[in-house]
Amino acid sequence: MYKHFFKRFFDILFSLLILLILSPVLLIVAIAIKIDSKGPVIFKQKRIGRKGKVFNIYKFRSMCVNAEHTGSGVYSGKDDARVTRVGKFLRATSIDELPQAVNILKGDMSFIGPRPPLTYHPWPIEEYTDEQKKMFDVRPGITGWAQVNGRKGVEWHDRIKLSVWYVEHLTMWLDIKIFFLTFFKVLSNADNENVGATVRNDEKMHSSEVEQAQEPVNK
């Protein structure tokens, strides 16, 4: 009952509350981004969602425009020059994720679930094993079991295992636990920096695919 009804009910309720109550904050952030650097306020990126459906994930833009053609490509680490001044604050506080309330309202995402991967990273959906594809049985989330068990430092094979475990053990109490663990992670800014590539056999990515990335993939 929770998985198929109440979880979606709470997603709709709280996403509406966020958009209504935090609308002044969202407006201030949007203005700050426009003043700080050229480019759109909202960054859109193709991600893989429930049942393998591709959707546009929304974030506040935290990097300079055309960041994919400069710097370290897919991975964004500490002191990345492509991150704007406002962007550094948005990332440290995870405020850049707030526009995903719209994704939740649309039904693309949930507050809690496996973090949606890029369409090409860590690898195309055709290359996921049947076991790994279980992570796509539920809506992806803003935060999830993998994020509270290492966040950006977890290698993708292990991250997917954690996501599959979440899908197989999904309950309201597990979601509540993840919510509070996420809250403390955000407050302490723990595990919120890339420490290097987090995909074994990273050479499977083509250079043309790497150039497509504009924002860090480990979020």
Tell me what you see in this structure:
The radius of gyration is 17 Å and the shape is globular. The longest helix is centred in the first third of the chain and has 20 residues. It has one domain. By secondary structure, the chain is mainly α. Helices cover 38% and strands 9% of the residues. α1 packs across α4.
Q: Tell me the span between the first and last alpha carbons.
A: 29 Å
Largest sheet: 2 strands, antiparallel
The average pLDDT value, as a whole number, equals: 86
Shape: globular
Q: Could you name the ranges where pLDDT drops below 50 across 5 or more consecutive residues?
A: 202-218
β content, as a range? 5-15%
Relative helix content: 25-40%
Strand order of the largest sheet: 1-2
Rg, please? Answer: 17 Å
| Broad structural category | mainly alpha
Summarize the structure.
By secondary structure, the chain is mainly alpha-helical. It has seven helices and four strands, in the order ααββααββααα.
